[in-house]
Design goal:
The chain has 349 residues and is an alpha/beta fold. The chain is 42% helix and 20% strand. The chain has 13 helices and 13 strands. Strands 1-3-2-4-5-6-12 form a 7-stranded mixed beta sheet, with helices on both faces. Helix 4 links the parallel strand 2 and strand 3. Helix 4 runs parallel beside helix 11, helix 5 runs parallel beside helix 6 and helix 7 packs antiparallel against helix 13. The longest helix has 17 residues. The radius of gyration is 20 Å and the shape is globular. The N and C termini lie far apart (42 Å).
Length: 349
């Protein structure tokens, strides 16, 4: 059952707010009964790169689509704007809550201050934030993942697949979140093949410089690592990772994707034979689960973590060559079991 408070606040939306959201690049879909009931459901606000990144943001949209189809209500998804401030983000989330959307999710750690502020203003709305665990409010769910665990398995895959004993890691932005990917990957490589060398670099120091949204930067960085004999390159760089995959395909080396199963992404289809695997985190499931919890009248709150044990991080096996390599699969499965049991402690920094 939807909560009465949501129906009440839904009527408070004004035309000016609708126009403001439209200016932010929003889209919406309506379920069959939403207009009759004045009932609105899940809304998400994208991180840098927006929809179409074939990675992080697209995974969040997949969760929104599933919720819309299952619950038949109105949803909204909004693109970021260049140079926006925390105040801009907070206004966006507050506008969604005022219009009656519930839950409202900020996709990415950059929404931390905005979610905190909007949640204080709208205590009857459930808010979610992906990739941040700093908000301790009764109406906020911190949707986080053990990315280092999936990255460790990516390191095992890289170490077993390299012929040059040189592999690469490319991070989009030099921040603690991406350090988790690097730490897990490097540990997985070294534990599997101590002779292997890991080349690690970051594209930018801040997201505003385009580290998560510049395929050209990713391509240049990958080409530099490939010149240094890296024959497997793992990117945790959002949209910039597309450039890494393109460079790997052009140079006939392996790329490892991130967040979504990038082997299956239509926009990357011409490069898919170069995508060994992807270190996935099920942002779609986290987004959908929060929407379902609100729909069921028992909203998630606090830290909600996805890891190998819950099945919300892992390695994709869509590439037939990857899946058919029995020795590689055995090594990955062994590592996975040891991580879940606690025998392997994966570093996060």
């Amino acid at each position: 059952m939807r909560r009465i408070s949501r129906i009440t606040v839904a009527g408070a939306a004004t035309a000016s707010l609708a126009l403001a959201l439209a200016a932010c690049g929003s889209t919406s879909t309506s379920g069959s009964g939403s207009d009759e009931k004045g009932d609105k459901g899940l809304a998400i606000a994208y991180d840098v790169g927006g929809k179409g990144d074939q990675s992080f943001n697209d995974a969040a949209y997949a969760g929104l689509e599933k919720a819309q189809k299952e619950f038949g209500y109105e949803t909204r998804d909004i693109e970021p704007t260049e140079g926006e401030t925390d105040a801009d983000k907070e206004q966006r989330l507050a506008s969604l809550a005022k219009q009656g959307y519930n839950p409202v999710i900020g996709v990415g750690y950059a929404y931390a201050a905005a979610v905190k502020g909007a949640a204080e203003k709208y205590p009857d709305t459930t808010f979610g934030i992906v990739d941040d665990s700093t908000i301790t409010a009764e109406n906020v769910a911190d949707l986080v993942f053990s990315e280092e665990q999936a990255s460790y398995l990516a390191g095992v895959a890289a170490a077993k697949s390299t012929k040059s004993n040189v592999v690469g890691f490319i991070g989009g932005v030099d921040i603690p979140l991406i350090h988790k990917f690097q730490a897990g990957f490097e540990q997985g490589v070294k534990d599997t093949n101590p002779k292997a060398k890991v080349l690690s670099q970051y594209l930018t120091q801040t997201a505003e410089e385009g580290g998560f949204s510049s395929p050209d930067k990713g391509k240049t960085a990958a080409e530099g690592q490939i010149e240094k004999k890296a024959d497997v390159v793992y990117a945790a760089a959002g949209l910039s990772g597309q450039g890494v995959i393109e460079a790997a395909a052009a140079n006939k080396v392996w790329a490892i994707g991130v967040d979504s199963d990038q082997y299956k992404q239509e926009a990357l289809a011409k490069y898919k034979d170069a995508i060994l695997t992807s270190a996935t985190k099920d942002v779609a499931k986290a987004v959908y689960n929060l929407a379902k919890s609100v729909e069921d009248g028992k909203p998630e709150t606090g830290i909600v973590r996805g890891d190998l044990k819950t099945g919300e991080v892992g390695l994709a096996d869509s590439n037939p060559k990857f899946k058919a390599d029995a020795e590689l699969q055995e090594a990955i499965e062994t590592a996975k079991e040891k991580i879940i049991s606690g025998e392997i402690k994966v570093k996060s920094s």
